[in-house]
């Protein structure tokens, strides 16, 4: 793809942040639809919780064509905020969601100082199967300062599993939990790639 650039979301305009939130919700809607089937509510929930300095987007003609969110052992790319959850879903459901999503999305997923974790990677439908995911992963592997990179992928997401394996990621283990089941998430592979 020509005329593309990868930029940190904290360097871009509010419209890019909104496009990124919409892409996040649309790409992972099957995981989030247990919360609500209203995509606009999910966008309102996730937009203020995104840590913009940990999210990178591939821009094509000034539109978000893909995103990668990469965290480390100190911070995650999505930090659930109880106040936001309550404002979007009310006091009871909001507090429950803040707790549940906080356990899944906000607690660091890796322990090592030099370990990175791909929280999310997504491509806009019109750019799928055009190398966007590979470009974003290559950027994270080369452009961010990690010795190893981990990611989770749904076992039944065969195109993603194939891409990751092709790029040198290997399955470390399988992940299942009661919180994942409550959120409608099936078992996932935890994959890893040594970078240095």
UniProtKB/TrEMBL annotation:
<protein>
    <submittedName>
        <fullName>GNAT family N-acetyltransferase</fullName>
    </submittedName>
</protein>
<dbReference type="InterPro" id="IPR016181">
    <property type="entry name" value="Acyl_CoA_acyltransferase"/>
</dbReference>
<keyword id="KW-0012">Acyltransferase</keyword>
<keyword id="KW-0808">Transferase</keyword>
<feature type="domain" description="N-acetyltransferase">
    <location>
        <begin position="4"/>
        <end position="196"/>
    </location>
</feature>
<dbReference type="Pfam" id="PF00583">
    <property type="entry name" value="Acetyltransf_1"/>
</dbReference>
<dbReference type="InterPro" id="IPR050680">
    <property type="entry name" value="YpeA/RimI_acetyltransf"/>
</dbReference>
<dbReference type="InterPro" id="IPR000182">
    <property type="entry name" value="GNAT_dom"/>
</dbReference>
């Amino acid at each position: 793809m020509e005329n593309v650039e990868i930029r940190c979301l904290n360097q871009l305009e509010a419209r890019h942040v909104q496009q990124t939130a919409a892409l996040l919700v649309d790409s992972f809607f099957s995981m989030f639809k247990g919360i609500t089937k209203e995509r606009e509510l999910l966008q309102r929930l996730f937009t203020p919780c995104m840590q913009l300095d940990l999210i990178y987007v591939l821009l094509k003609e000034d539109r978000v064509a893909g995103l990668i969110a990469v965290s480390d052992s100190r911070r995650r790319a999505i930090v659930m905020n109880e106040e936001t959850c309550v404002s979007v879903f009310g006091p009871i459901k909001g507090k429950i969601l803040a707790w549940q999503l906080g356990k899944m999305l906000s607690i660091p997923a890796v322990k090592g100082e030099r370990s990175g974790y791909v929280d999310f990677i997504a491509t806009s439908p019109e750019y799928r199967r055009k190398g966007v995911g590979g470009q974003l992963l290559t950027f994270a592997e080369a452009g961010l300062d990690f010795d190893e990179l981990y990611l989770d992928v749904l076992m039944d997401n065969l195109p993603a599993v194939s891409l990751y394996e092709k790029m040198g990621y290997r399955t470390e283990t399988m992940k299942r939990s009661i919180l994942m089941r409550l959120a409608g998430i099936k078992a996932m592979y935890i994959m890893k790639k040594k970078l240095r």
